[in-house]
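Homework help thread (please don't just give me the answer)

Our assignment gives two proteins as sequence + structure token strings and asks us to describe the second one. The first is just a warm-up. Here they are:
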Amino acid sequence: MEDCAESIEVSQISGYRLLFKALSVIPITHYVIALYCVFLVFLYNFLELHFFEDLFSGGSVVNLTYHSGSELYLSVVSKCKILHTRYLSTPWLASPHFHTTLIELFGRPPAFTYKRELFHASDGGTIALDWLMSSNVLGSPSDETNVIPKNTTTPIVVVVPGLTSDSSAAYVKLFAFKMAKHGWNVLVTNHRGMGGVSFTSDRIYNAGWTMDIRDINNHLREEYPDAPLYLVGLSIGANIVGKYLGEDGDRVPVAGAAVICSPWDLLIGSRFIKRRLVQRFYDRVLAIGLQGYAMLNEAHFTKHGDWEGILKARTIRDFDKYATCVATKIETVDTYYRWASSAGYVKGVSVPLLCISSLDDPVCPGEAIPWDECRANKNVVLATTKHGGHLGYFEGITASGLWWVSAVNEYFDVLHASPLTHKQKKSQSPGHCTPEESLIDQSPYVTVTNGMVAPADVDEDLTENRKFF
């Protein structure tokens, strides 16, 4: 028995020796090629590339979610060809991370100059409004003074940019140029403290502060009573627009709206952005951008925030803790996120609203999208794609265009020509919760299990009156 065991052991050792000898015969270049192939497979999956998927499928199907009796879909969206075709990404940018991080490098519009108007909000704050008139782009000699006549009937598109972005952002300028070239006037509302304008009141902007866009729309309605107003929100601006539309219902003085890559539920987004290494990278980059915003307005944030905490902030949540919550007197970051989220306001939207989101958005997760709420509201159509990143959606071999820009352009064009255009009237300031109120005991709580967020059971009357998610 011992001799047999020794024989087996010797046989095994001899087998390994033969294996190692065979491996040593293989040229080193073959090992290098194999390791390179493994690295490419890892990189392809890590960057979530979808080049081969697009190659064989022809691109991402645009899935539309809407109420079965939606007049918005029947009268408008059903006639939008772009929303009924596939989105095909630029082949060499077929990754949500390329779409998101390279937005400032590709798809740039021709150079143009905005006309600036300084708007004074109801609380004394100053907001930079940047105009791009259609006459500037089309070269019309009819508006040599570069002033919009009070009796104009040309539609006005109001754009609310994303976090730390202003009118100079490439995706904002591309959309503005596209709409102006289409014959519409465009107004970009810069957030407070941005666009080179300092603070003139105590308030800073945040994801749930809707009074600024309310004041601006009321101002535009008074100045240009015959011009249809349309509203577009991008990223955090989409959350602001969605919340505003839900708060004011049929009192908003706009004909229609679109929200692109909205975070919808900030609490879910806050959990999501910590899950993976790549998400934490975005969290850090956005936090750096917010710190830069604070440093541009150091005197204001030193007075109204925790300046030492702001300088130490490493995440968006840190910044919101030391800046947003302190400045707006909200007790906790979770309370702020619950109050600011637009998902709970979808049911109150009373104007035609198109929502566009990508399911591979590395910043705003698909799980935060209020699918059922969008399906239940006849005034809302939700368009989702499997790919597109965050505010990217590059298309064409040269990445010269953004798919969502063309989709929104067509949507507004069809909506404006339809009988569904919302009857505009002067908006009144409705009662709504303001950040000065103590929110910690008012907001319905949520239960968190394994990083997932779900609404807790609350009294229906309380939910309706407070309008919190």
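The one we have to describe:
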Amino acid sequence: MIMAKRVAVIGGGTSGLACIKCCLDEGLEPVCFETSDDIGGLWRFKENPDPDRASIYHSLIINTSKEMMCYSDFPIPGHFPNYMHNSLIMDYFRMYADHFQLKRHIHFQTKVLHVTPRPDFPQSGQWDVETESNNGRREKQVFDAVMVCTGHHCHPHLPLQDFPGAVHVMTKQTECMCKVQQHNVNKGQTLIHILFNIIWCCMLFCVLFFLSGRVFSQHPMVNDDLPNRILSGTVSVKPNIQVFRGSSVVFEDGTVEDDIDLVVFATGHTFSFPFLSSQVIPVSKNKVSLYKYMYPPGLERPTLAVIGLIQPLGAIMPISEMQARGATRVFKGLCNLPPMSAMMKDIKAKEEAMARRYVAAQRHTIQVDYIPYMDELAKQVGVLPSILKLLVTDPRLALNVTFGPCTPYQFRLHGPGRWEGNSVGSSQRVMFHYH
């Protein structure tokens, strides 16, 4: 039995907040270290972002509905719009943190310098965590477990070596360069429009899939504004850049654009764990081998978990929460991980499936599908809804869970962390949120 007492949580963003909450639920003592002066991580907009820190843009609006992105035990207020502006998302995080009194466990403006296994790690599973506050004061503490919540938007990826010539920046007309075909999805379509076009869309996707496979081989970009910009001519789509020539850009189709003022690299980010030894979590070309995208398979004791290092086809908040629910129970010895051989087999199977499905690119190394992955984690934690049981106790709810959206609330019906009260009350609560 691994009875972890103190847990170091590295990062106070969306994943870090869920980890603090789940630690408290399991009777653990979380100590969170956050380099900035506030919660929210990537979602906290700053006019002048901190160095080496990713930030959203001012007008960003969430592209998944509020019912699908919330934490399972803290619904987003009903008066909030379905697709929220980032400022409202921050409001929600503050409500969540205040309701569960999470901030008292966070050390702000504190950087984690080193996380190293203690000399007796094979027996104790403990870690030495060295930190530095903004005033330069260093401190080393012992923790029974560590949860890494630094995300995958860590370092800007600037492949300058792939674009010969000078680098300047953009004119009033924006040139949208697509090296690999990017499929854009508009989320504002009406139901009638969707029904009218569903047959044609199915036919088109089937044709595209069999001819090129490109539609399903990449993470889709959901954006309302870009198609309208393209149609109006304020954004033009171009192939890959061949070379920069002073203030001119030569594209691979031979066309040339002159008087370019600005170049924006929308090439994503890379992730790393500078506070960890490469022997603990090796990272190579944005690839990392983690069981269930969480656990380093080579550790003698399962007392370290990476939370939120995923690129989901869906919202990350409920996934991070589910990961945290599982990790805290593993730390306590209530859930056991399989042998290393089984973990490596699972890792290899996921890597091979990803290679078959997606084009080879660094943005597809941590891709997961929301529903299968949530069910996979929920089964491991013991909170996967039992449809047969629901059919007996609440047939209407069983139908909603089976055929309705995979809302996070349904993972509070059974097992550890289920809603307090009888099953009827829990069912009514889930039904309320389905409607």
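TA reply:
I won't write it for you, but here's a hint about the kind of observation we're looking for: Residues 168-185, 187-197, 422-426 have pLDDT under 50 and may be disordered.
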